[in-house]
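Re-run with default settings, no changes from the original entry. Doing this only to confirm the output is reproducible before filing.
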Amino acid sequence: MLNQTLFEALRAVSPEVSIIHEGESGAYEVHAAAGVSLSAKRTTGRTAFVTRWGETYKLNCPICGDTRQRLFICHLLGVTIGKGAGKLRFSRSIAMCHNQHCNIYPWLMQLPGINWQELTLVEGVSPTKSKGAGLSEEIEMPRPSIPLMSDEVPQRVHDYLIGRGFDPQQLYTQYRLHYAPQGALWNIIENKALYEDRIVIPIFHGGILTGWQARDITGASPIKYLTAPGWRKTEALYNMDVAKWFRDIVIVEGPTDVWRAGENSIALMGKTLSAGSIQAEILQTLWGDRGRVLICLDSYEDDPSTLEAAAKLMETIHEIKAFPEGIAMLQLPSDDPGSWDEEELRSLLNQCFADMQRRV
């Protein structure tokens, strides 16, 4: 056990707490970015962003009445490492309620026996500091690709995300977003450069960077998304490495839909799924003997082809024998999931899963 103090404090108030990935050390990156410490109101200029959780504590969320242990707390939560000017504190987004996405921090602050200003790991244990952007080198990102929370990223990039209702720090911590400025090389072999600023969305499979998409944030390009040269969208599911921990899954079209729908969602990078594709193989492998799935594509009013696409998607899931506990479709009356209010969308998704449960 890597964080005895935190675990014992959790067990004192929630005896059902369990451990996953016990003994696995986490990994982190550091960027000079503003962040707020867990227990203090002051702002610190150096925050450590966790890139691998490692040992994690799993329990019922005390806020929403969860009974399925869907509150996950990384052993690095609130931990400080280093001394003096080099002292670091880990970002607080590594404690998440995957049931109702509750604000659990007031509850955490009341845990007994913890001094959040001095919380450390057991002696001899230390997380690994990632090099550079913390992304693997299996494929190459656009040059340059700058971590979203770096001081080198212009404020207009954050303003774009905030204007769409997203939290830049959360997106970086959870999804490793980067920024590629105008002039960055996105196709190294053909020496092709970007004509506009873009946000780079990495796509991981088993912790390996297998692809990326770069989204125009200027509105000036007729091409909204550029894709990593040679990468096939049918070979991966966006957010798979996180969603695989969940039993009930939401299938959406694109990355921004995942950001809004939550950690238990995966994106097809489109509307279609072939029974013989790598995407289908992943679904069958991870959910061939468990779980429910809710298909939530873009609004059928905005795109009449959505209903037909969703119906074909349901047929394919039946064909590959995935999600044996239930398949359903959520037809949004307007817009795509990524354009909805987060609380409203997630409430609607949770209600759909509850309705599926009642029909069993």
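The domain at 240-358 is CATH 3.40.1360.10 (Dna Topoisomerase Vi A Subunit; Chain: A, domain 2). The first helix runs from residue 4 to 13.
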